[in-house]
Write a structure and sequence with these properties.
The protein is α/β, with parallel strands linked by helices. 52% of the residues lie in helices and 16% in strands. The strands form 3 sheets. Strands 8-9-11-12-13-14-15-16 form an 8-stranded mixed β-barrel, surrounded by 4 helices. A 5-stranded mixed beta sheet has the order 2-3-1-6-7, sandwiched between helices. The longest helix has 37 residues. The protein is elongated and about 130 Å long. The N terminus is likely disordered.
């Protein structure tokens, strides 16, 4: 499903253990069993006997104390319904019956009609109390069933999962519990294609299949629209993974909606609760993180590890302070040089964002840019990179340097027409030669909407900017991009360059790419050139430009200026 529906259950969506503990206490004594039932019966009998004794000591049934007997009768009916109330009424009626004087001091006995009439009132009161108690408890049961189950599928819900981890008698505290979150990632696509009703129908079919998918003592849950879960106590990790694979196999066959076969795309996030103090909040969060990882990596399942926690918390924390970092000018551009393979002349550089964090030092982009892409922050972040890049080009121009600068744009940037419009306006305002600016886009960013990408890149090409495809050779449609997009340069992915001297396949692929690029009159850049051997080999193969640590690492602006002046490479 799309991101807007694919979310992790939040802490405030889970009922607190304190509230559940109060509810658990009421629930325990609302329907007492075992020793609690014996304790309740004992308490009621003692109360009846004590009140009978009090009536005798205070003068007999002629006085008001006899009415106290309604208390244990109502209590018995409330706890044990009509049968309990009737038994208590008979016991109380007999104790206040023929053996109990009307007036003890005057030794006046009761008439038969008096104590029989009293028993009749006791029975009526107990029966009415029992009827009300049954109705009231039935209402509580109905409300609890609704509160603990998903109304659409009938599966237990998130609150039910919370109760399971708090006090399920089938889950001894020393027994490990396995939890799997099942994320149906294409449910939104199904809704968009067929209708909301189709998704409801398919969710019912998913629930039905889950219930029939295994004979193991597994409990299935539906936590959200596209999020299901299962728990099983007393199972080790590998056994649970095998069980999840079996369940996934049962969900692979197409579901039917109005005779249309529908395939679901699912990802399992698995977590183990080994400690007796594990709460639903903790374990659901861990399994949800693992499910998100499985979806991101396009895996059937992923198992939670502690490294997920550190990474996720740190990334989230960095994201939360990024706006302030932009305002405080903590972000900066580093420049990695590019050199001509033919004459070793410095051609320019690639601009790479770095975050000079006041506490953590220099933070690489892979820790914050992927997270920023999921939020509105990608717009100001990209705008910063473009402005800083244009400023750098202006400074080079003023110093007489004939250098190009490559700036990366993400898939979100390509779809953001307002950002592209701002970039075009800035190029004109800065008055720089647009051909010195190279826009780098990865193949992955083109997969989302090739038509929009073609329109946007053509508008940039029309003002003179150069277009480069980064990580070329890693996608499935590399050649089609060259026919569709106004490309000037291809950057051969460093995974191919790294294996150039050891892998005949990589060498063959690179040769064919270079030959195709030459035929199409495209400039070729090899990234990840780490040695003189690679540099010379790429030169022999006809590659145009090299970038990598053999030439230099990414440098700050000041370091780059010094390198330009002192470098052995030609300027």
């Amino acid at each position: 499903m799309a991101n807007k529906t694919n979310k992790i259950p939040k802490n405030d969506e889970i009922v607190s253990p304190e509230n559940l503990s109060v509810n658990s206490f009421i629930e325990t004594w609302r329907k007492p069993k075992g020793y609690r039932a014996i304790l309740a019966v004992t308490l009621i009998v003692l109360l009846i006997v004590s009140i009978a004794q009090l009536v005798y000591l205070t003068g007999g049934t002629a006085f008001v104390w006899a009415h106290l007997m309604y208390i244990p009768l109502i209590l018995a009916a409330a706890v044990f319904r009509i049968p309990g109330g009737i038994l208590a009424a008979f016991l109380a009626g007999l104790l206040l019956g023929p053996s109990m004087p009307l007036a003890v001091a005057k030794e006046i006995p009761q008439q038969t009609s008096q104590w029989l009439f009293r028993i009749g009132f006791f029975l009526l009161a107990a029966t009415l109390s029992g009827i009300f108690s049954k109705w009231f408890n039935d209402q509580i049961d109905r409300v609890q069933t609704q509160a603990l189950h998903d109304p659409q599928t009938g599966l237990p819900n998130l609150l039910s999962l919370q109760k399971f981890f708090l006090h399920d008698p089938k889950n001894p505290p020393d027994l490990p519990v396995a939890l799997a979150i099942i994320n149906i990632s294409n449910l939104q696509q199904i809704i968009n294609t067929l209708s909301y009703r189709s998704a409801s129908d398919i969710c019912l079919q998913i629930a039905a299949r889950l219930k029939k998918s295994t004979s193991h003592p597994v409990t299935f849950y539906r936590l959200q629209n596209n999020i299901y879960a299962l728990t099983m106590p007393g199972i080790d990790l590998q056994e649970f993974i095998s069980l999840c694979k079996k369940i996934a196999t049962n969900l692979e066959a197409p579901f039917q909606y109005e005779e249309i076969p529908v395939i679901i795309n699912m990802h399992f996030g698995i977590a183990m609760a080994h400690e007796p103090t594990s709460t639903a909040c903790d374990i659901v969060q861990k399994a949800s993180i693992a499910a998100h990882d499985a979806e991101k990596e396009n895996l059937l399942y992923s198992t939670y590890t502690k490294s997920f926690d550190t990474s996720s918390v740190r990334r989230l924390s960095l994201l939360g302070t990024m706006k302030e970092a932009l305002m405080a000018e903590e972000l900066t551009l580093f420049l990695q040089p590019k050199v001509s393979l033919a004459d070793k002349k410095i051609m320019g550089a690639e601009a790479l964002i770095r975050w000079q964090h006041p506490e953590e030092g220099l933070i690489p982009p892979d820790l914050f840019i992927p997270e920023a892409e999921k939020t509105w922050l990608i717009h100001p972040l990209s705008l910063f990179a473009l402005k800083a890049g244009l400023n750098q080009l202006k400074r080079w121009e003023n110093k007489g340097y004939n250098l190009k600068l490559a700036v990366n744009l993400t898939s979100h940037n390509i779809q953001d027409r307002s950002l592209i419009s701002e970039l075009i306006d800035m190029i004109r305002d800065y008055g720089i030669d647009a051909s010195k600016l190279e826009i780098e886009i990865t193949e992955r960013s083109l997969v989302t909407d090739i038509k929009t990408a073609a329109d946007v890149l053509t508008s940039l090409k029309n003002i003179g900017a150069q277009i480069s495809i980064d990580d070329f050779g890693t996608g499935y449609s590399s050649s089609s991009y060259l026919q569709t997009l106004p490309v000037d340069t291809i950057k051969i992915d460093q995974s191919l360059i790294a294996n150039l001297t050891t892998s005949p396949l990589s060498a063959s692929l690179v040769k064919h790419m270079l030959a195709a690029a030459k035929e199409l009159k495209l400039t070729t850049v090899a990234e990840g050139v780490e040695s003189e051997e690679l540099f010379n080999l790429l030169k022999e193969m006809g590659c145009d430009i090299a970038q990598g640590y053999y030439i230099n690492k990414p440098l700050s602006e000041k370091e780059f200026e010094q390198w330009l002046t002192n470098s052995d490479w030609k300027l």
